[in-house]
Specification:
This protein is α+β, with helices and mostly antiparallel strands and 338 residues long. Among the domains are: 73-94 and 128-143 and 316-338, no CATH class; 147-315, Jelly Rolls, CATH 2.60.120.560. Helices cover 20% and strands 32% of the residues. The chain contains 6 helices and 17 strands. α5 crosses α6 (319-327). The N and C termini lie far apart (95 Å).
Length: 338
């Protein structure tokens, strides 16, 4: 409220106050309503203060935005930088390699006719024959990761007739191996890393690698040599060729073993080199060239009992390997060497 406007007393007698025309007040102490000038500002949702209205775009604002982008790039992870730079280039190369022009045929129509009449089945199982160098690189660099925690059954494994009847499920989705069974999707691999989590219920925990079939493979097992509250165990390595064991070598485990232990086993299979880790400690390394490729598998001899929680087989499973696996038009398993 504010005081009324002053009234001219000299001209009061000469004018008539009419409520229908003008509102006039005879005294200065009479009050009249006033409309204040409001300047409201919206605050931030977090209560940090009023919002600022964006001013006109200037060169200084653009320069500050560039500085913020540069700061984000400098503090970004190295993997994100690599992907941001390499992904567009790789996509351009892949698109060009897949949709490039067909090579000229200098032999004429006769060669084309002979190619057309050739049996298509000869190349049906070998798609890499039609691939160029870039496609071959993508397929060879593609990452592989096979994982099974046995929750979906045993459909990913194969063995002799009736082998699945010898495998049983235990508590907490643990599986108890029986006769030898191989992971089907790993049979075409040559280099990989095998990792699994297992436990010895009675006497030994057995696994195979570079298994060409059910009669040719490398085998390892953790065997308990003395039971009790402080058991002793050794690592036994064998080579099986044509169903017969050729070599047996026993190695000590360089750390104390406890009862009811969950063993984290990792095997790195690369070329002629084989390295074994138990509980993230190296326990064995050897070289052999008799078996060049093959998958992984598990078994338990009669009288022995072990439990498996999960199994993983991976190869070059990094950022580049995952990207090449997405871009690869064919399966990457079983790709032959150059």
């Amino acid at each position: 409220m504010m005081p009324a406007r002053p009234v001219d007393s000299a001209g009061k007698s000469s004018r008539t106050c009419s409520g229908s025309v003008l509102s006039c007040w005879a005294a200065l102490d009479d009050l009249r309503p006033a409309q204040p000038f409001l300047r409201l500002e919206l605050d931030h949702a977090d209560g940090s203060g009023p919002r600022r209205h964006p001013g006109p775009k200037t060169f200084r604002n653009k320069f500050s935005k560039l500085r913020r982008n540069r700061r984000f790039w400098l503090h970004a992870p190295s993997d994100l930088k690599w992907i941001a730079v390499a992904l567009p280039l790789l996509l351009v190369v892949v698109v060009y390699s897949f949709y490039g022009k067909k090579p000229n045929n200098p032999a004429g129509d006769s060669a084309m006719a002979s190619t057309a009449t050739a049996p298509a089945a000869s190349n049906s199982g070998q798609p890499w024959i039609k691939a160029n160098a870039i496609q071959r690189f993508i397929m060879r660099r593609a990452g592989v990761r096979l994982f099974d925690d046995f929750r979906g059954g045993l459909g990913a494994w194969q063995g002799k007739e009736g082998w699945s009847k010898t495998w049983r499920y235990g508590d907490a989705t643990f599986v108890q191996p029986g006769e030898l069974a191989l992971l089907s999707s790993s049979l075409g691999l040559s280099d990989y890393t095998l990792t699994f989590l297992g436990q010895i219920e009675r006497r030994s925990l057995n696994w195979v690698f570079r298994a060409k079939d059910l009669g040719n493979y490398y085998s390892m097992r953790i065997a308990v040599t003395r039971a009790g509250p402080l058991p002793e165990a050794v690592l036994v390595r064998t080579v099986v060729l044509n169903g017969r064991e050729r070599e047996v070598k026993t190695l000590p485990i360089p750390f104390p073993v406890q009862a009811d232990t969950l063993y984290l086993v990792r095997m790195e299979v690369h070329g002629r080199d084989f390295t074994t880790y138990i509980q993230n400690q190296i326990v064995d390394h050897f070289t052999d060239s008799r078996l060049n490729s093959g998958g992984v598998g598990f078994y338990s001899p009669r009288g022995d009992r072990a439990l498996l929680r999960w199994v993983e087989v991976s190869h070059q499973y990094d950022y580049l390997g995952r990207l090449c696996a997405l871009l690869s038009p064919y399966g990457v398993q079983g790709l032959p060497a150059d």
